[in-house]
Amino acid sequence: MDSTVVAGSTNTIFTQPAPALPLLEKGQAGDAIRVLQWILNSKKFLFQPEEYLDIDGVFGTRTENVIRYFQSVTNLPIDGIVGPDTWALLSLPEGLD
């Protein structure tokens, strides 16, 4: 990735956009789903610890239901699909979502 370092600064300014996050939906499997499940588990307002998602990398009914609930409490369209808007709110630090 190309980057520019500002003189006298420890900050790096990236000149290329971050790679797009994948569109995720029920029926998919893989590492991106594992990351999604880990992020969902970190959103403590979603459920009690005993209800945490298994981080199994499978976007099944349970993961879809948690996404739908997350979308409902964050005023997103409730479609169960993790697209750009859902990723944006999932990426916010705790307390800002």
UniProtKB/TrEMBL annotation:
Domain Peptidoglycan binding-like, first and last residues per copy: 30-90
Pfam families per record: PG_binding_1
Protein name: Peptidoglycan-binding protein
Organism: Lusitaniella coriacea LEGE 07157
